[in-house]
Structures are given as C-alpha cells and as structure tokens.
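Chapter summary example.
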Amino acid sequence: MCGESLKARNLVQRQADTIDKRRWYFSLTPTGQTMIEQAPRMLHEQFSEKFGQLQQWEQAQIISALERIVSMLDAEDIDAAPILDTQEIS
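The structure predicted for these 90 residues follows.
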C-alpha cells in the first residue's frame, strides 16, 4: 500500500477517524513537507516561466516551428491536453 510506504519513510502520518474506524486521514509530516519544498520544479513550470521571459518574436518563432513539426507528423488532431494539463491537488 502506498500510504504504508510513505508512513514508513516518515513522510506522512495517519490517524483513524474517531467516528468511522474504516476511514483514515493522512497528513504530511515535517519531513514530508521539507521533501516537497526541496523537490525540483516540474519541467513544464520551468519552461513556462522561461518561455514567458522571451521576446514576443522569439515566442512566435518557437510556436511556428512547433506548429510545423506537428503538421509534419500529421498530429494536428491529437489531443495532448489531458496529458499536459495539471492542477493543484487539494
């Protein structure tokens, strides 16, 4: 079980629900929080930040080149959004 592995590594702690003993609550330990804070940034976040710092003409050139590659690969109809989309875990 994934939760047991994280617990064994002292990254999360678990606590049983006081009303429903079948339910467990997990929370980060200080060690787990430190690990998250020290983790490297996701590549798409780094790319997005650095891409935004480029001049408009540089951005346009990159987009044009990527669109050309997509066209060459006949990949216009591939929906990559589900793969590339991220959202905050609540």
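To summarize the output: The CA atoms of residues 58 and 88 lie 30 Å apart.
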